[in-house]
Amino acid sequence: MQDKQVSIHRNDEQALLLRSQRLLEHLENLWQNPQEPSSGAMKQIIVTLPEPYRAMALEAIAERLVNDTKLHFLNIVATFYQKAEQEGIDAEERDETLQDIKLDTFRLMQLSKQISVHSLDDLLVLSNITSGVHALSQVNNAENAQSWMYKLPVLYQSRIEQEHLTVRNFTYGIAFSFDSSDLSTWNTALSNLSKAMRTWASEVHPRRTELLSTSVDTDWANLLPKSVHVNPQINEEIPTTMG
Description:
Elements: H1 2-32, H2 39-48, H3 53-83, H4 91-100, H5 102-110, H6 120-136, H7 142-162, E1 167-175, H8 184-204, H9 209-216, E2 233-241
Antiparallel strand pairs: 1-2
């Protein structure tokens, strides 16, 4: 009975493996057809579009550059994993390496969510950093791959942060309790919060002060119902420059 269950389990694994192989073959065929915009098309997008679509284009291209780097790094990891045993790196060292880089890898995978590009100057800097890191980290053996697995995430992210091209989100929660007949507490608190965030933003990154002020100074009192009988929660996502 146990032998029969083991046989069924192996058959299921083989079926899943064959299905995965077929899916990968289909994906490979699809990936061979150019789907992403060419460099000329991206230039036309930036030149042609008015705001705010031009800003969206800059952001999308910046995210693409970071995503390309993420895939480049994962390809380095795959090269190491594939060739480690062939080059005398045992399974224990291989797995320890993967464990060592786990945190830096996670941070790199999150980087596209933190990228902040608002001008052609920013995009040029990010492009130079990306192309430079890619050129430096070309690998063809496990030893070089292992070295760049440690270096690339830290090098790439630190260079981007030095150029102030990333932001980090913090969540602030503030609770108020008041009667519907008295909104003075609410208005005073919002006014103080607005001033505090503007001061904080000007100290961290003056370039972002105007944007933050615009989002904070919305007339929140108009968004409230006439009768308030709850303890409202305010959760504002506040960007701050890393580095």
